[in-house]
Amino acid sequence: MVQKMSTSLSIPVGLVNGLLKKFATKERKNTYTRDQLHQDKLKMYIFVLALSLHSYNMRIGGVCEALSLPSEKAANFFKEIGCVVTAAPAKEKQQGHSVELRVPLTFPRIKRLKKK
User: Fold this and answer.
1) pLDDT tens for each residue of 41-79
2) Using an 8 Å Cβ cutoff, are 85 and 79 in contact?
3) Which of 39, 50, 86, 93 has its CA 20 to 30 A from that of 33?
4) The model's pTM
């Protein structure tokens, strides 16, 4: 199956194996699936790549459109990466939120349930 995927996508077998190990779960001998965890992981990698291509400061409208993802959900992913997310002004709403990855990184606080 990996060889068939490699040939049809015109990419090396080693790269296909690496992508399947990182972003899919092996169910049987030649069967792979992507659960929600692996889909989210792939989106995070895409977001980090997009940030690095845009010098760590960008509008997320284009990425959201390409991934068919609501901008609010994408904004949450960018917050998890450590970005500062700024809401877009009303006249630029279509371009989406503005995100910036600043150093030092600050991650959102984990909400804890209060004990009774």
Assistant:
1) 999 999 999 999 999 999 998 898 999 999 889 999 999
2) yes
3) 50
4) 0.76
